[in-house]
TrEMBL record:
PANTHER family with a match to the protein in the record: AUTOPHAGY-RELATED PROTEIN 22
Top-rank lineage group of the source organism: Bacteria
Name listed for the protein in its UniProt record: MFS transporter
Domain Major facilitator superfamily (MFS) profile stretches: 274-468
Amino acid sequence: MPDDADAPGPAGPGGVADLRPLARAREQKAWYWYDWANSAYVTTIATVLFAPYLITVAEQAACGFMGEAGNPCREDLSVLGLTVAPGSLPSYIITFSTILSAVLLPLLGAVADRTANKKGMLAGFAWVGAGFASLLFFCTDGNWQIGAIAVIGANLCLGASTVVNDAILPLIADEEERDRVSSRGWAWGYLGGGLLLAINLAVVQLLPFGIDTSLAVRLSMLSAAIWWAAFTFIPYLRLQNRAPTHVVPESGGIVQQSFGQLWATLKDLRNYPMALTFLLAYLFFNDGIQTVIVSSSTFGEKELGFETGTLITTILLVQFVAFFGALVFGRAADRFGAKRVILTGLVVWMLIVTLALVVPAGEALPFYALGVAIGIVLGGTQALARSYFSLLIPQGREGEFFSFYHAMDRGTSWFGTLTFGLVFQLTGSYRPAIFALIGFFVIGGLLLLRVDTARGIREAGNQRPSVI
């Protein structure tokens, strides 16, 4: 039987002691560790090393040598009969993995809602994803195809595991707690990802034991896969399972039932217009955020001419600033409401992509300053989007709604990465490619302004927090 983490405590002199807040607090601490675990993949691989390294491997395949400043590779690759510039390849790979996610994750969410063993699903997807990520160690000597398979598989599993992880949030935190709990989870993620990134920085910069840069990068990516798998054991062992509630009655096995529930939810979305409006807003502004994240290392290396060590230092700075940014945004949401704080963050994102047009090449200090600005708003906007959305969705269907949410989530945006890749292909410069993302923040912000928070909470049948 599933464990009952919400059982009341023993009777005392004043009646029955309610120990549910203590039980929730213990599970919340265990839940934070999954952000700690998967952030190693997001930072070391998806944000810093994968795109520049795959471009280098693809340039070897196309030209027989690694492109560099003053002597870039001008040849294209032939991929499934299409001509692709090596510099655009990572963007297209992420786009493809996101399209697959958009098809598969909603069904997964319906399965998760009907499954008591959510922590088993969480861990299973995490461990398979880490296995895919470990294949990047073997991506070398022009074999870019191994890297493509590794990242497509890892991104799919990352999306699947975070669907389940976020569906657990409403089960372990009530409406008053969610902004705080979600923000702390993101903050732990930035600490974990930043710690491993610091270790990898030392490896890449110092090149111990006589290893070369290529091997150092591949070892760093392998360490992120191992980190992801190892720390997933903590939530797997400490979270409690709960029987599913409020599921749509369907006949047949769990897969057939899940298809039926998914179809019922799709028809029922019109009854939750505020949740649907927020999803559309999130589609745009999160695509902008994710594209900035996954393209920042490419922009820094290929457009501004920085070495890998400088890029890792910048992302490391972003990680530790984002730790404080997530906590500050969580406190601000307690005072002003999550929606207002998210909108403020989007204005800062617009300024960031505008400054990318003029940030000077080869000068580290302005690049670091841009990283600080990203860190301040990065964790806060994402953490509050997660907790804000949880207020707008009905109980017992968290998996399905978060599966729609995560079809558009971190490292898997496809409108943004497709725009970035196409603009680069047309202009040959990463500056207009990254500035083009301002449209995503503008549209996302305008849609978010249309969300009536109080109405959305009523439609979902949730309790209204004291501040919205």
